[in-house]
Amino acid sequence: MHKVERGVSCAGCPHRAAYIACKEALGRGKNKVICGNAGCAATGYMHPAATTCTGGEDALLPRYKQEVPSGGAVDQPAVEACIHFALDTEVAADDAPRRFAGLAAEGAVTILAVMVSSRAFLGAEAIEGLCQHIVEDLRIDDVVAVDPLDTLACTDILRDMLARPGVHAVAFCSPCVQLQGDRAPEPVDIDRIACVGCHRCKQITGCPALVFAPPAYTVDADACAGCDLCTSFCRTHVIYSPRAPIAPAERCEMRYQAATSHS
């Protein structure tokens, strides 16, 4: 596993998967905003869009750095829809009710996207406690926990929320890849003969484990964390995962077991 770089998402980072799902569900539009912090203690602050940028936060173009909508009110929100990223530690902090008090004024539909990936939230009880905190202290009644690497489930949940005005919350639950250490799942493999080099996997995910070696892509096995995110975006289906027969819920459990045993 490669060394953590400031401002750059690691291969296998669940925050990257969460952003991709949010971007897919939200779509494009001037009044649609994805903002907040999708970094971590190791990488530092990162705009959500920087998670899929090859160069990370420093390389992200200014036009993609959407800011938290301002100037709105509860009865007249600033934008049509807003997905506001936040770290689990930020949401669990004592000042969270004050920090996130303005969510209803940000968008006619606002989703608080909570990155639940730190060491403090490896257990089911801790995750349930965080969700309860969101309901009771942040006063957000609609809270759903989901594995960000289950792309289809995430997109369905987000689209359902975006269709209903008000404030919602999604807890994207998957352990930080650095917590899994050398127990992370084995890497994916690419059939270089069949790969057409279309760049789609890299353009969508920005994963540092995907390396273009003309005329096709290959996988940096030392960097790949076996998250399988790239397999969802290969149109020619030449990225193979040894976990293909395993259901998403079981894959998620494997990651938690690796993180718990390594920690």
TrEMBL record:
InterPro entries: 4Fe4S_Fe-S-bd. It comes from the Bacteria. It comes from Collinsella tanakaei. This is 4Fe-4S ferredoxin-type domain-containing protein. Residues 215-244 form the 4Fe-4S ferredoxin-type domain.
